[in-house]
Amino acid sequence: MDSTYRAMQIARPGVLELVHRPLPTPGPGAALIAVEACGVCGADVGDIERAGPALDPPRVPGHEVVGRIVALPEGTASRWVVGQRVGVGRLGGPCGECVACRRGEFQLCERQPIVGATCDGGYAEAMLARQSGLVAIPDALDSVDAAPLLCAGIATFNALRKSGASAGDRVAIQGIGGLGHMALQYARRMGFEVVAIGRGADIADDARRLGAHVYIDAAIDDAAAALQRMGGAQAIVATSTDAAAVTRLLPGLAPRGSLILLGVAKEPLHIAAGAMIRGERSIAGSITGTPYDTERALAFSVLVDARPVVETMPLERANEAYQRVKSGAPRFRIALTMREPAPQSRRGTAVAGVAASRRA
User: What's 4-137+308-344's CATH class?
Assistant: First the structure.
């Protein structure tokens, strides 16, 4: 690589600027990555708009990063090698020493960096990353497809795995956006009866192509009542940040059903305790996952041919990409590329159908 690299840093809250930075040298336990693609996530909006203006140098956002290792510290043994393609997600790598790490709950480590928020992320041609946070990228995934799976993919994959639902159970996915469009694909391929809950008729066909057996338009129907007419959902994966909308779904759970929260709402949920107690229902949050969990999600995506629908934009258009994500315009993800993306790897039938319908 050159002695400098381009990065989109936060000039002030809500504004990104293109700068050239000197290429860093990785210290102990770190790796220098030449970034190939970085997804633009809804969480980036908060990072960009709440960034501390006094930080020097300003923060570089982005936490769905795929690239190749170009440098490792000298004289340290590592499972990682120069030239290897790796990813970095939201959780920047566990410390290995705190109580959570000693319990093996690495995703709950409170001493790991939050990529794009407490350490620099991937809106750049290069970035430093903890080796403990690196994820091996399968050859069958191109970098653009792999990037969103490091956040939207692992988040929904783990939520479904933790939901308590078994193959054949009814599972509802609330919110058919960047997270939800992966949840639909995974849920269908895991053998669930899949119900998609969105707002508006325009998303119905896409939801079915992505894996939904049934689509409920919450703009015109009571989604919880509709679920109960079907017999209730064993699990509801809520990706929305609308606390009121999520709260209204609770009566749609079957007895011993679980509501899994992925969207971080600003307002609290208002829970009717009686319904939760009588039906032994539960509510749980689910964070993304460990690097090992993420590698499992990537492997599953390859195995069942589940891919994100991704719009690509060059690095220098990161301001535009962030504003599009903030407005809810993308259907379904955006990834920044450092150069022209390579031809797409083979894509799943459902995903190809969604992309084709958008081009028509």
Answer: alpha beta
Q: Which two tokens stand for residue 285?
A: 């949050």
Entry pTM: 0.90
Interval 281-310: pLDDT, tens: 999 999 899 999 999 999 999 999 999 999
Q: Which long-range contacts (CB under 8 A, 24 or more apart) does 213-220 make?
A: 213/188, 216/172, 218/174, 218/245
Scan for tokens 């707002």, then name that residue: 199
- What does the alpha-carbon distance between residue 139 and residue 181 come to, in Å, rounded to a whole number? 23
Contact 156, 238 (CB under 8 A): no
Domain 152-285: state its class. alpha beta
- The CA-based angle 239-240-246, given to 5 degrees, is 105
Measured over the CA atoms of residue 152, residue 154, residue 155 and residue 159, the dihedral's sign is positive
Q: Report pLDDT for 55.
A: 81
The single-letter code of the amino acid at 297 is: A
Reduce the DSSP state of residue 259 to 3 states and report it: strand
Same fold, 4-137+308-344 and 152-285: no
Q: What is the mean pLDDT of residues 170-197?
A: 96
Tell me what percent of the residues of the chain surpass a pLDDT of 70. Answer: 94
- What are residue 226's phi and psi, to 5 degrees? -60, -40
Q: Where are the domains of the chain?
A: 4-137+308-344, 152-285
